[in-house]
Amino acid sequence: MKKYRDQGNEALVFGEYRRSAHAITRVNYGIECRIYWKNVSPEAESRYKKPMGLTEILTAQGIYYFLTGVWPVVHIRSFLAVTGPKTDLWLVRTVGLLIAVAGAAMMQAGISHEFTLGILILATGSAAALTAVDIVYVALGTIAKIYLLDAALEIALLLAWAAALFHAG
């Protein structure tokens, strides 16, 4: 870990880094993550190239997770009509809120172009975990087959992440 100070601003940087007048770019796993100083001009920011597609996938996944997460909280009857009956509605709402919070974090990071290794782990880990839960519990007969549609969407997200990360470096 390196501590870097420039223009009265401090940043802690992990891994390899490059310095510019307005930002530090650190490179982790081939992904460039920028730590911007407080007063960065739009012109200076436009000089940096973000990895192709990563923030768009992140924003789309965040929107999907947020909407599907708040659905059981906002209208449990329609959620149950589509996904099948559940016994522990408090658990359905709790999981929904957790997914919505993860989605909100992904949306914020995607919209603000703040792509970090932590948000990558959140996005891909959530997609992988939800895929596994969907497939296993449909196979066991615990949840309705409609969850295979969610599994297909989660797999599509994982493939999109794989392609974008491959092209990013």
Model description:
The protein is an alpha+beta fold and 169 residues long. It has 2 domains: 45 residues, no CATH class; 115 residues, no CATH class. 60% of the residues lie in helices and 15% in strands. The chain is built from 6 helices and 5 strands. The strands form 2 sheets. A 3-stranded antiparallel beta sheet has the order 3-4-5, with no helix packed on it. Strands 1-2 form a two-stranded antiparallel ribbon. Helix 2 crosses helix 3, helix 2 packs antiparallel against helix 4 and helix 5 runs antiparallel to helix 6. The longest helix has 23 residues. The two termini are 23 Å apart.
Estimated share of beta-strand residues: 15-25%
Low-confidence stretches: 1-22
Number of domains: 2
Let me know the average pLDDT: 81
**Gyration radius from CA atoms, angstroms:** 19 Å
Estimated structural class: alpha+beta
Q: N-to-C terminal Cα separation, in Å? A: 23 Å
Number of strands: 5
Biggest sheet strand line-up: 3-4-5
Characterize the main sheet: 3 strands, antiparallel
Count of helix runs: 6
* Helix-strand string: EEEEEHHHHHH
**What's the overall geometry?**
globular
Helical fraction: 55-70%
List the helices and strands and how they pair.
Elements: E1 2-6, E2 9-13, E3 16-19, E4 23-28, E5 31-36, H1 42-46, H2 54-74, H3 76-83, H4 89-111, H5 117-139, H6 147-168
Antiparallel strand pairs: 1-2, 3-4, 4-5
Helix pairs in contact: 2-3, 2-4, 4-5, 5-6
